[in-house]
Design goal:
- The structure is a single chain.
- The protein is of the alpha+beta class.
- The protein folds into three domains: 9-93, Rossmann fold; 122-184, Dna Ligase, domain 1; 190-382, D-amino Acid Aminotransferase, Chain A, domain 1, CATH 3.30.470.20.
- The protein contains twelve helices and 19 strands.
- It has helices at 17-28, 59-68, 81-88, 97-103, 106-115, 129-139, 163-172, 230-246, 280-283, 288-296, 330-333, 365-378, and strands at residues 9-13, 32-37, 50-53, 71-74, 123-126, 143-147, 157-160, 180-184, 190-198, 204-206, 210-215, 218-224, 251-260, 263-270, 310-317, 326-328, 339-343, 354-362, 380-382.
- The radius of gyration is 21 Å and the shape is globular.
- It binds adenosine monophosphate (AMP).
- The site of adenosine monophosphate has 14 residues, from strand 6 and strand 14.
Length: 385
């Protein structure tokens, strides 16, 4: 591929915090940035040269984005297929539309991963109550019913532990277009994710696995490097590499895995930069965001080496429904060595909304984790001062 050199323009479908953090290295490298987002106050818009305010199913707006860009990418995976097609007919769209379609459907995603000989959580597609009953009988309890399409941050998921929760989940089955996946619950020791970059020339650079702790289905804490069996961690990296190659990835993607002993099972794929990779901004020689820009522009990939003995990231989530909130406590949090605070420019707080994150570096993971958690505890959203 002929490189798309600085001075060219990147088109971005989606204007959230991932788009904002992608726009920063894009601009540093000298690229123009055009963002298509439905919200007038989307976090990435302030960093874009041009914003197109439109919904993601507005195909004409997507064509306009393509016309203004030399290469187009996206920051979330629920871009409608028709929109992706309209862009891809005009400009390179990375990661490719086929990979995007696979990751939009949990059942297709699991079929794809298992087709590569890689284990996933045991599960079955469910479209009818009869299929639900058969899946429960085959997989046993506890289990999770997950909407096949559109789920994000634990949304569209129901945990089934007994007859009552099974009946409640069963009642939801007919209501959803696109169907469900019923999964047996995996007993894991830890969750890890591998963010892997691949360029059009086939160069593959994975970051060492991140270790993730979720709360209510949302990422709470990431530490790096992950602990656990070296065999399993090496296997997770190998899995990410083979998925990137099989999917003809160009850009960055994230492979989330469950680890138990030496065993690794893939939970989920995200064909984009990922929350668990935010600590690469401070923690790695090249950030996941810059790596993505390099990959989609056909530039050489950067080093994924850590810059410290340990790094940790804690998400700052909204608690209440409030407008015009301000972050309090940054003066105290930033007094902790190795701590940095990132805010996404959202002045409207909502419960569970990702408002920002804290990263800390340390001599080892324990020190980084302690610093990041201590900083996050000092930070809260409140009234404007
Ligand atoms: P997901 O949206 O599928 O990534 O699920 C969110 C979180 O729920 C995961 O990160 C796990 O902590 C948990 N989870 C999801 N599926 C399973 C499963 N099959 N077994 C055990 N835990 C799960």
């Amino acid at each position: 591929m002929t490189p798309i050199l600085p001075g060219a323009t990147l088109g971005l479908l989606g204007g959230g915090q991932l788009g904002r953090m992608l726009a920063i290295p894009a601009r540093e490298l000298g690229y123009g940035v055009v963002v298509l987002a439905p919200e007038g106050d989307a976090p990435a818009l302030g960093l874009a040269d041009h914003g197109i305010r439109a919904s993601f199913d507005d195909v004409d707006a997507a064509r306009q984005l393509a016309a203004m860009s030399d290469v187009v990418t996206y920051e979330f995976e629920n871009v409608p297929a028709a929109t992706a097609r309209a862009v891809a007919e005009r400009r390179p769209l990375h990661p490719n539309a086929a990979l995007l379609a696979i990751t939009q459907d949990r059942n297709a995603e699991h079929r794809f991963v298992e087709g590569l000989g890689i284990a996933t959580a045991p599960g079955r597609p469910v479209h009818t109550v009869e299929e639900f009953d058969a899946a429960i009988a085959a997989l046993g309890l506890p289990a999770r019913l997950k909407s096949a399409r559109g789920g994000y941050d634990g949304g569209g998921q129901f945990r089934i532990t007994d007859a009552a929760s099974a009946a409640a989940a069963r009642a939801r089955v007919p209501a959803v277009e696109g169907g469900w996946r019923l999964e047996g619950e995996v007993r894991f020791e830890r969750e890890v994710s591998v963010v892997v970059a691949r360029s059009a020339s086939g160069e593959v650079v994975p970051y060492a696995p991140f270790e993730n702790v979720h709360r209510e289905g949302i990422l709470h804490l990431t530490t790096w490097p992950a602990a656990g069996s070296p065999v399993a961690l090496a296997r997770a990296v190998e899995i990410a590499r083979s998925i990137a190659e099989a999917a003809d990835l160009v850009g960055v993607m994230c492979v989330e895995c469950f680890v138990a002993g030496d065993e690794v099972r893939v939970n989920e794929l995200a064909p984009r930069v990922h929350n668990s990779g935010h600590l690469t901004i401070e923690g790695a020689a090249t950030t996941q965001f810059e790596q993505h820009v390099r990959a989609i522009c056909g530039l050489p990939l950067g080093s994924a080496a850590p810059r410290s003995g340990g790094a940790a990231m804690v998400n700052l989530l909204g608690l209440a429904e409030r407008r015009k909130v301000r972050l309090h406590g940054a003066d105290r949090a930033l007094a902790i060595p190795g701590v940095r605070v990132h805010l996404y420019g959202k002045d409207r707080e909502r419960p569970r909304r990702k408002m920002g994150h804290v990263t800390a570096l340390g001599g080892d993971v324990a020190e980084a984790r302690e610093r990041a958690l201590r900083a996050a505890n000092l930070l809260q959203f409140g009234e404007p001062v």
